[in-house]
Amino acid sequence: MSKRAFGMLLLALMLAAVTALAGCGTGGSDKKLVRIGEVTRSLFYAPQYVAIEKGFFEEEGLEIELTTTPGGDKTMTALLSNSIDVALVGSETSIYVYQQGADDPVINFAQLTQTDGTFLVAREKTESFDWNSLKGSVFLGQRKGGMPQMAGEFAMKKHGIDPHNDMELIQNVDFANIAPAFSSGTGDYVQLFEPTASIFEKEGRGYVVASFGTESGHLPYTVFMTKESFIDKNAETVQAFTDAVYKAQQWVDENSAEAIADVVLPYFENVDRDILVSSLDRYKQQGSFATDPIVDVDEWNNLLDVITSAGELQERTEHDVLVNTDFAEKAIAEGEK
What we know:
Blueprint: H1 3-22, E1 32-38, H2 46-53, H3 56-59, E2 62-68, H4 72-80, E3 86-89, H5 92-99, E4 106-113, E5 118-122, E6 138-140, H6 147-158, E7 168-170, H7 175-183, E8 189-193, H8 196-203, E9 207-211, H9 212-216, E10 222-227, H10 228-233, H11 235-254, H12 257-264, H13 273-285, H14 297-309, H15 319-322, H16 326-335
Parallel strand pairs: 1-2, 1-3, 6-7, 6-8
Antiparallel strand pairs: 3-10, 4-10, 5-8, 5-9
């Protein structure tokens, strides 16, 4: 073989190697990367982890980069600064951004959870809980203006409890430190997500006496959202994303807590499987996981009522301003074919 022929062959091999390497990145060149920022790592978001682990996003031609961005403020900052493409966070954050006069509003396009995900946990075990027991107690609450706290206050007011006058309300503890603070002796009652609530029950550190999710009704509690400009430029990607979410929602609805636990276990390696199962079953029983991605008008209006009751709403932002149901409706229609 001549030097020229050998050189041409070597060049061809090098080009082939470069092409192969280019296709061996995380997800490959044919996959569209979508960066998700989740407000916290929570069993409450099980359908999201199912969508990743069962390959539903991959089936839709998407590669997912999942980051936990602790807190609504940090998650929204990451979205607005283009550090992430899609935020998984409470719908109230999109309203707050809009009320601040954002030129590029944040649009809710796919709902994941449809109730509050917290439970009222008492330090002492009781056979029959009476909401009036909260009067005169020390209550370890959540962040002011956040959905857990607002939904909790909304539920308490339904039962004639004024959370700011009938009890000592503690709200200066960071989200990550609320459970440890209660465990170390702060408060008579606390508001906790799963699986922490079930862990506390198992260890005798607290007892679930009521569900704020059941008490506050259906809400667009945790929703996938993105900037309007991202939707305008990436409508096909948003549709593919929503299609994958819907597949996961249907799978979660049709499968047992045990089956779901086995899928999401890699995201909660420090939690016993039996705790995952009981927590998932609790969420399934109260209908916390949305079975489709649509944020409907009634849910949105209930959200506005909850925020108004908490004194955090400047004016009501109507459903059609910050919600786009086109992608969810198309996902459902395609799924029924």
